[in-house]
Write a structure and sequence with these properties.
239 residues, mainly alpha, 77% helix, 0% strand
């Protein structure tokens, strides 16, 4: 039997995921004008604005469903699709720009090696959103894929917290624990609702967690080098 989580869970989860991202990026983006950090470039400002818009739509969509306004949810869905495409496009551009701007990362990875990390993050987001859209008429699958899409892009927010709280020595652990905690919450919600968990969470969650060490390994492989170099060259033309 498929797990059916309580309707209010998805609304609460959307708010929690959004709050985590906003808090993590508070110093470096939302409250940046109040800090001593230099101004962001145009590309990063656009990236931040587009993703903030996605966060707002994500929360609104879950509230519409919770309030049984499926008609408005479906109408806003067309806007959501266009915004998701924009998030992916601008996300790739911003990641490429960041790779070009910092040839060596604090982790010791070169920019070319590091490129595998954000590119994997954005790809996972794109895949989960695409699956959610394709299966929009199957609510149980649709809403879980959309939640997984958000969990998949928590890595940048987690990295901001790592730098903010000076947890670099525990960086890998934190990067794994953040999505693991949210995924565990999703599994618990399913289990409490029907004493079983949905396969989408199990498979999708495993992919997200396994991708973190794999993307770091991938960045160091020979076959990734030309891909990473292409990303760096593309990013150099954007900054």
């Amino acid at each position: 039997m498929s797990a059916v989580a309580r309707p209010r869970f998805f609304g609460v989860a959307a708010i929690a995921l959004t709050a985590f991202v906003v808090i993590a990026f508070a110093r470096t983006y939302y409250l940046r004008p109040l800090s001593d950090l230099p101004p962001l470039g145009v590309l990063m400002q656009v990236h931040g604005a587009v993703f903030t818009a996605w966060l707002l739509v994500f929360v609104v969509q879950t509230r519409l469903v919770a309030n049984h306004r499926i008609d408005l949810h479906m109408k806003l869905g067309y806007t959501s699709v266009g915004l998701a495409v924009l998030v992916v496009a601008v996300g790739f551009a911003a990641a490429a720009g960041a790779v070009a701007a910092r040839p060596v990362r604090p982790s010791g990875l070169t920019g070319v090696e590091f490129a595998a990390i954000p590119m994997t993050t954005i790809t996972l987001f794109a895949v989960f959103v695409a699956l959610g859209i394709a299966l929009r008429r199957r609510a149980a699958l649709h809403k879980r894929f959309m939640v997984l899409a958000m969990i998949a892009v928590l890595a940048p927010a987690a990295s901001r917290l790592i730098a903010w709280l000076d947890l670099r020595a525990q960086a890998t652990l934190v990067q794994l624990m953040v999505p693991a905690l949210f995924l565990g919450w999703c599994l618990l919600a399913d289990w409490r609702a029907s004493r079983c968990v949905h396969a989408v969470y199990v498979i999708g969650g495993a992919v997200i967690l396994a991708s973190w060490p794999l993307r770091q390994m991938m960045g160091r492989t020979e076959w990734w080098q030309p891909v990473g170099e292409w990303v760096a060259r593309a990013g150099a033309g954007l900054i």
